[in-house]
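Sample pair:
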Amino acid sequence: MVWINWEIFTHKWLKRAERGQVCVDDGDRFISLWIAFNGWMRYRFSEELGDRYQIESVKKMRDFQEVFDKLNTGNTDFRDCLEDLKKLTVVDMRFKNNREDIDRYDGTYESLIEVIYQVRCNLFHGRKDIDEDKKDIELVSLAYRILLPLFKEYLSKEFIPGTDRPATID
């Protein structure tokens, strides 16, 4: 098995996610951001465990929820994005004829993680049109504009030089 320094991997993809070039849109930036986030989850929770386990683990992290709460109360742009996200639904597109499996951000940290993950799943599995579908474009853009500050703020607290402080999980 190839050894990867997940901290370096995560930070390189995070830097890529922040590109501001004209030819790079929020879809490209969100994909890069998700690769960074996914790499961090693999580092934090084990490369052997699947995405669902890792998402459930993130939802239980008090540290991450504290960052969410802080941004939600102290960052107007973040809060505005959350309010915009509340107005939208995300359909689980794995079953294209079953429109009953719908996620919605309800104001909770846990629902936010689920909705962002569902946007990721739909995008990565070819079920989001980020060129022409206005709702899809808005969902991907909001997912990017919410996850970026949340993840960056969390990382600024997690990776303390010279320590390997574990995340706090309930």
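Residues 49-158 form one domain.
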